[in-house]
Amino acid sequence: MNASYQIRSRLHFALGGAVVLSFFFQALTWGGAYRFFAYLVLLLSLGVYFQAQQQSQHFRNILLKCLLPLVGFVALEWIATLHFPWDVKATRHVLLATGLVAGIVLMTREHISIKPYVVPVLIISVYAYTFFQTVWIFGLGKIYGTTKNPHYLAIYSALFLVTALFIATNWTRGVQRYGLAASAAGLGFLLLSTSSRPTWIALIVATFIVFICLRRRAKLTLIALAGLVLAMLFFTDAGNFKTRMDDLVMHASTEERVTIWEDTWAMQQESSRQQWLFGHGVEGFEKDFQPYSRYYATQGITYNSPHNAVIEVLYQFGWVGLVAIIGFVSWIYYSLFTRYFRARLQAMQETQMVVLLLLALFTVTLVAVSITLPFFVSIHLNVIALVMGVMRYMDINEKA
Length: 400
Known about the structure:
The protein is mostly helical.
């Protein structure tokens, strides 16, 4: 074993550790730690890339494709505002997410060495997240755990819940499976305690997406379990689930979000022809919205997004940007579905479950963020980065 190999191996493991820690600290919403490791991923990715003596053209092409979302975002912002958005917060989010994609892709060179650690790292992450939130909520009395917003706690609890269930049913057995089931129950309790209807709805949609993909026997099992859980939630009203959902149905037309959407659409009507095409830029919404917001006029409440991804992107980047974003999201779903059904035809059980997990994680985040948070928030972009990175990772291994 020569010195060059040892350096390469250590760089790859350091990169893998930085990727995992950046995702984990983002889940805890510890911004300083997240940014430290995310920037470290960028630096280590450059080190791994330039340390490698040979790079195939296929590998270079995949890395270049990882840059396309960043280039596209910068182009859209520049066209909308006529200046390069280096000082825009969302640009940093996209840049760090791009680094995470590249970091995951670059780890393919040590696939055989890294693969045995993937499931144990995911299991430890589930346990650690459950532990931190439990201690912060019940030990330190922080109502939203390590986060300051119930929706962040809800979304990440849902993501780790989905991960725990997938690992428990596909990659573990015995005591480990029961431990993950216990963590999943705890995460489910945290999710209910947030009263976050958007995340509840997102989980239901993700369950439906997974249901579509499964074979008949697995479909029956999933629908029975999902039906049982929903029935228990409605009959017991655990976490005010039934009360909150009934309230949404009964008062949908007067719900807070509907008012925000109406006010945002009134603001959009004042756009020029050029702004309808190319938008106002990613940072203009909060200030621009105040004169149109009924909640700001009566209660002084400000919003940094309209809680509607379609209207938000239309205002930020116009019809051009909206079509581009819809196309991008559609491409991700198309890529995941085609990978899943190809793996099913080839009887590649592990690949099927990995792709289904990615589908569920992506759907939960997309739906929850689209009606709750700004579209270009880091929680959303990092899950997109995870999905894109793993897809590219699989592409490279298939060609190897």
